[in-house]
Amino acid sequence: MAIVTGSRRTRRLRTALAYLALAALVAFFLFPLLWILGLSLKTRAQTFADTPVWLWWPTFEHYADVLFRKDFLKAFLNTLIVSFSAVLLSLCVGVPAAYAFARFPFRGGNALFFSLLVMRMLPPVAVLVPMYVILSDIGLTTTHLSVVLAYTTFSLPLVVWVMRGFFDDLPVEVEECAWIDGATRRQAFQRVVLPLAKPGMVASAILCLQLAWNDFLFAAVLTNNDTQTLPVLMAGFTGGDSGVDWGPMTASGVLVILPVIVFSFMAQKHLVAGLSSGAVKG
């Protein structure tokens, strides 16, 4: 009896330590977000107070200042345009390419697939200069299309990698049943394979959206005042005679990350299914 009681206490202690470790880990990752949220709800005097202010009445003046700025709304619209365009273009090209890699083995296919992954591993600054030269020669700099193409360059290998693993796990017998019913390969792909591949496509879309939405480097080089995105606009809060304007900067930061968080929570079921069925097994 004493042995059983001791083993129960040991299991409870291990469980409590595991939950304590998870809580500490969650607090560690959430602390920067909570700190930014707190700064966005403080006045300038509270932010620069000699003694840290832990309890205060929140103010939304910084959010009002940011939301009523014309350049913020324009930058928000630009970010929506380039981000969702890059996601759509990456999916339209990457999903058929991943299907081809999974269903049509050919000589050199693995080498080509590996070359795509190598492109994703390259640091963005390594391709920034040649990409700028090419886009400048064809007159696409400072346009939305230039940023979309730049984002697609790094999003496309990610889509191909995730979706190829998903298509590899999808039984080919599903398509064969559609062929028997008289469907062509293209019809089977559109009407059977793509609906089953929706979780993988949602997972790929979220990963590509995060990449495009948060990018600063390409947007800073390839845009101007009319086409700049939110990360570039936020960089403007770090200069000036008065130093860093922490209130508007943190408020804009919260507004920037909020749409991606909401979209990720809405598609959480598809995100988990897509990553576990494709990227992990593949």
UniProtKB/TrEMBL annotation:
Looking at the UniProt entry, the stretches that span the membrane are: 16-37, 75-99, 111-133, 145-163, 192-213, 246-267
Tell me the membrane topology, using the record's own terms. Multi-pass membrane protein
So which domain of life are we looking at?
A: Bacteria
- Which keywords appear in this protein's UniProt record, sorted alphabetically? Cell membrane, Membrane, Sugar transport, Transmembrane, Transmembrane helix, Transport
The residue ranges of the ABC transmembrane type-1 domain are 76-267
Q: Which InterPro entries match?
A: BP-dep_ABC_trans_perm, MetI-like, MetI-like_sf
SUPFAM superfamilies (UniProt xref) = MetI-like
Keyword Cell membrane, does the record have it? Answer: yes
Cellular localization per UniProt = Cell membrane
Q: What does the UniProt record say this protein does?
A: Part of the ABC transporter complex MalEFGK involved in maltose/maltodextrin import. Probably responsible for the translocation of the substrate across the membrane.
Task: Tell me the protein family, please.
Answer: Belongs to the binding-protein-dependent transport system permease family. MalFG subfamily.
The protein's name is Maltose/maltodextrin transport system permease protein MalG
